Amino acid sequence: MDITVNILLTIATAATPLLIAAIGELVVERSGVLNLGVEGMMIMGAVGGFGAGYLTGSPWIGLLAAIALGALFSLLFAVMTLSLATNQVATGLSLTLLGLGLSGMMGTSFVGQPGQRLPNLDIPGLTSLPVVGRLLFGQDPIFYISIALTAAVMWFLFKTRTGLTLRSIGDSHTSAHALGIHVIRYRYLAVIFGGACAGLAGGHLSLVYTPQWVENMTAGRGWIALALVVFASWRPWRVLAGAYIFGAVWIGQLHAQAFGIPVPSQLLSSLPYLATVVVLVLISRNKRLTMMNTPASLGQPFVPDR
């Protein structure tokens, strides 16, 4: 039973950064913007969170720094694509390359240094309950933030007037503009929110998952988060389910290697990425489902009439 609980805990820890980054990107894409720079924003959040935590001795300050750096990086993307109307795909890819290179340079002095770790929640009388105690009441704070964030985004998008406005912009920015909606302003806010989430996801990696700095420690999680949004057909609750499925695959291959299963370790390590490819192929076969939920203006630049 202890082994099962430990495996479930590691799955939740592995799924949390995927869930947060994907939820942020879902809001961005619902506004009609395609930001492929999630990986770059995550790695900047990771190095910023570790660096601030290490220099100040406070993991909470590190967490705030991770969020701020992710939002700042997304602001660069927003200026380029929304104000200057550059190509969103090319700009997002450039943002990822910039983040990977810049984080490596910033983190040079942090390699091998001890990190600050966010403490797990401990509620007397509840955390000690068998099985469910550690799973429900003994997780790290970002785990609870991720669940609350998913619920909040679901409520915002489908139960509020502002969420309806955001979705209408993603479906037809031209019509929204004709109705007097400030398309660029909404998209700026959505992109910054997505960047803050990506930064928080990166901060989780360097402050909870592995409290240390390792170059390229995101290891493609930003790309998996992007695939999760498509996998979930732009629905928050499906993002939640998908994140835990991918988290289970990620942890499963680690345990398979630890148990000595006679399969090449390189193949086991590639399982999360193979799963991503398989999921995308399966989704692409259902054209009706994909087209029904895809924001119609996704990836299209918008320049308001002067």
UniProtKB/TrEMBL annotation:
The protein, known as: ABC transporter permease
Asked whether the UniProt record includes Transmembrane among its keywords, one would answer yes
What is the recorded membrane topology of this protein?
Multi-pass membrane protein
The record's annotation in InterPro entries points to: ABC_transp_permease
Regions crossing the membrane? 6-28, 33-54, 60-82, 89-111, 141-158, 188-210, 216-234, 241-261, 267-283
List the GO cellular component terms: plasma membrane
Sample GO molecular function, one term: transmembrane transporter activity
Instruction: List UniProt keywords, sorted A-Z.
Output: Cell membrane, Membrane, Transmembrane, Transmembrane helix
A Pfam family per the record = BPD_transp_2
Report the subcellular localization: Cell membrane
- The organism encoding this protein is Mesorhizobium helmanticense
The record, for CDD domains, names: TM_PBP1_transp_TpRbsC_like (cd06580)
